[in-house]
Design goal:
Oligomer: single chain
Protein name: LPXTG cell wall anchor domain-containing protein
Strand content: under 5%
Shape: flat
Helix content: over 70%
Number of strands: 0
Organism: Algoriphagus halophytocola
Distance between the termini: 85 Å
Keywords: Membrane, Transmembrane, Transmembrane helix
Order of helices and strands: HHHH
Length: 127
């Protein structure tokens, strides 16, 4: 009985070691994917920040020109310096609309010019 327990213990230890190696190998893949995602996010953040700086510089130059010409009012300054409020909802609505149109196209367009519709079949069965 103790031999069976010893064998089971050895088998369990080997199984556990294999599972641990498998988890380590899979986690290495996840770490790589996470690192790539993090690097992509940092690159995107850097690009957005550089664009903001360019926009701010051009806005400041425009405000300087308007101030020199005497055309800069508080309202114009506020409109130039006010940040635009963007939201996810308009783009989400547009995507849902496009998705709905694509589904409708796939479902109804093939049957649009097909004379064998349900109405035609009902009319033929009535005759």
């Amino acid at each position: 009985m103790s031999k069976d327990l010893k064998k089971k213990e050895v088998e369990l230890q080997e199984t556990f070691a294999r599972q641990l190696e498998l988890v380590k190998a899979e986690s290495a893949d996840w770490v790589k994917v996470g690192g790539i995602a993090l690097a992509g996010g940092l690159i995107a953040f850097a690009i957005i920040q550089s664009r903001k700086k360019r926009k701010n510089r051009s806005t400041e130059k425009a405000m300087e020109v308007l101030a020199r010409e005497g055309l800069l009012s508080e309202e114009i300054e506020r409109k130039l310096t006010q940040e635009s409020k963007s939201s996810i909802w308009p783009s989400l609505r547009q995507r849902l609309l496009i998705l709905g149109l694509a589904l409708a196209k796939e479902k109804f367009l093939p049957n649009l010019f097909n004379p064998e519709t349900e109405d035609a079949q009902v009319e033929e069965s009535d005759k």
